């Protein structure tokens, strides 16, 4: 079943066309990567899906429902979790506090002036943290964590809303290579296990070819190729404009690493 | 109304627009480069006028020539420019990295110090300036007489705009100013000597303020209230035009000049309100002003300046709390009448300051006009009792309702903005409230206010009234504190820490901030109502800028990083003020210097010191 469908998305900033007739579909439990060189329109496409940008034309459908132009908070309430290129967390709170906050929002209790926020949904938060392997750090201030761990907590925050779809903008940006592989492995495991669709952009080709079910290649705002990692890798136009020879070898290496 | 009259009215609007632009252009230039909103800009304007009324008559004694008049004006402006350099080197350099609330407070400290310095040097009596030789006559325009000096002023604005344009586009210094306004970090990365650039900008900014002041002397006498009245107008011009944009300031000054000169014909009483309404509308439609640009996004996330942890009371805190509560209740038994009065006022200010820290510390909503809700609560209670004939009890219920109602109304606009624009808009709304209370003499009693706001008979003794205040304020503080620990309080902290993340987990940030603003307004309104009864009177100082600054100084002194800091700050601030103010004629000077010292060397306040002590123990 189609979880997310983008139909003919266009975005113009003044005279610059950032996205031109971008269409794709994503099924539940599937991981779709958007790749492309800098300025290809990855983040623009992404933000149009997440509600941060309204498209100039085109539609975004979530489980058949039109969510085009809805603000992020409403997109979230319809079952979309999100992580950011630069991790966004609540710096004054503990690790568990961050996830508890997301749970408070998910359960619609942000206007509660009676309950005690520190003990609310604590058990659920610890369970979510355990899923991402961060349970031991629950009571540390989030500002003290290493960046890779912050990204894991951000994943737990996104999962707190019990999403049908996860949007991850360059999930491994700024991380060490070993942390990258572990985070992608973790994400893929959770997504497949719970049937959550994942749309992510990524610069790291190893991560893309190892974990994406399908890949969408954007160049100058246009989709130039779409399909399985094998078909994208074999596509001569993709090789010419984007991957290049060294990228091609990296892709082969990553594939061997993940499956061999 | 004939055509000639309208033309002359419009011309006089242009003349004031021109003066306003000269001042505002300096403010906007300084903000563009240093990102500091310089409250002391109004003080530079005032100093320009005082310098000119000193220097120009002396020069005119030699020869009554226009040349010497304008030489005097330029010399005055240059002296003020040098004072700007002094301020940059001594103070602003230490402020570039501190949060904007602290910058505003520190520059306001300079305002207070300059006010007392001016009174000390020039005395409290207004000093009229000489008229400009050669421009003393009137000119006949369409059958109306119009002063030649005003025509000259009309030309000054465009001339300054032209010169600034040349400076900004034809000189290296000007190009660096423009570059720094766009992207300060990049200019630093390119190896530009920032210290020199900032010092030079401060000279230019202060020079323009001084020039604006010096040019006013044929029209208005130099007086010690010039600074605050001009700074709010200059803020409005820069905010409407877009902070950092010189052409924007020009456009906004012309619009406001015309609005003022024609508004006075239609709504003579509420011209001030018109100007601030224009500002509110512009900011809601174009949040960065007419020709402004959005702030470049901050590089990396920083820990917010506000409440960071919400710890429970430990053993020590419980002991301290018990002692404080016992002392509060024991004051009427053991203290004399004066002590009881001070203790009552401390309780009232503690509630007001706590409600402000609920916004600033917990919500990251830096309100610079919290006195508005305090004062409106006081006016609601006071007017109900004196004009409405109601008793104290319903009036004390009306006070928080009035505070909440106005906070909800103003907050609707305020929460659409963030950062410095939000602070400016809260200040503007407070000034509207102040202007209405000041100008609507039939109802509010104007400057004198209203007397005879007495409690009901049962609460008329100082002791009983103290217990009434203690009950209301302690309950109010406890309730707000509970909200800080509740999900609603946590949601406000979340939105303060990362608006983007809060949005992405489904929080309607604006709506929550609006509710918080309303709640804080209610608490401040209650405090204001109680204050009206404790004084027995109401007057416009209750909602003036200095009152808002007092509240912020209480937060600063107590430490806005902790939940209870505001209470300690209110107690310390009010006792110190009450003790020292009768002893010195220069209270404002000491207050200003103390605020600056707090910002520079003691930014975490009393509770920061207490926290350090607890960690060591």
Automatic annotation (TrEMBL), chain A:
As one GO molecular function, the record gives: ATP binding
What protein am I looking at?
A: ABC transporter ATP-binding protein
Keywords of this entry = ATP-binding, Nucleotide-binding, Transport
Q: Which SMART domains match?
A: AAA
Please, which domain of life does this record's source organism belong to? Bacteria
Q: Which InterPro entries match?
A: AAA+_ATPase, ABC_AA/LPS_Transport, ABC_transporter-like_ATP-bd, BCA_ABC_TP_C, P-loop_NTPase
What are the ABC transporter domain coordinates in residue numbering? 4-245
UniProtKB/TrEMBL annotation, chain B:
Report any Pfam family annotated for this entry. Answer: BPD_transp_2
Q: Which UniProt keywords apply?
A: Amino-acid transport, Cell membrane, Membrane, Transmembrane, Transmembrane helix, Transport
Q: Which CDD domains match?
A: TM_PBP1_LivH_like, TM_PBP1_LivM_like
Cell membrane: present as a keyword of the record?
yes
Q: Where in the cell is it found?
A: Cell membrane
Indicate how the chain sits in the lipid bilayer. Answer: Multi-pass membrane protein
Which residue spans traverse the membrane?
A: 6-31, 43-60, 66-92, 104-123, 148-168, 189-214, 234-255, 262-285, 319-339, 346-375, 395-415, 422-441, 464-484, 514-533, 553-575, 587-606
Q: Which PANTHER family match?
A: ABC TRANSPORTER ATP-BINDING PROTEIN, BRANCHED-CHAIN AMINO ACID TRANSPORT SYSTEM PERMEASE PROTEIN LIVH
Family, similarity comment:
Belongs to the binding-protein-dependent transport system permease family. LivHM subfamily.
Q: What is this protein called?
A: ABC transporter permease
Native organism is Falsiroseomonas frigidaquae
